[in-house]
Design a protein that fits this description.
The protein is of the alpha+beta class. Helices cover 18% and strands 42% of the residues. The longest helix is centred in the last third of the chain and has 11 residues, at 45-55. It is flat.
């Protein structure tokens, strides 16, 4: 395991697989998607800047 990985680190999943699932319990259907990755790679610093810019809330003029 990479020791530079800490809580809050931005990572890139490698070999990501999404698997839909559904269960019936007490007559109610529950469904969702399970995700699995072969590994996680630490995202480059340049990608972190773009991600921060894309997810930062913008001021709304009224």
């Amino acid at each position: 395991m990479d020791t530079s990985l800490t809580a809050g680190s931005v990572v890139r999943p490698v070999g990501l697989i999404a698997t839909p699932w559904a269960n019936v319990f007490n007559g109610q259907v529950q469904q969702g998607v399970a995700y699995r990755a072969e590994s996680l790679a630490i995202a480059p610093a340049s990608g972190m800047t773009a991600l921060a810019a894309a997810t930062t809330p913008k001021a709304v003029k009224s």
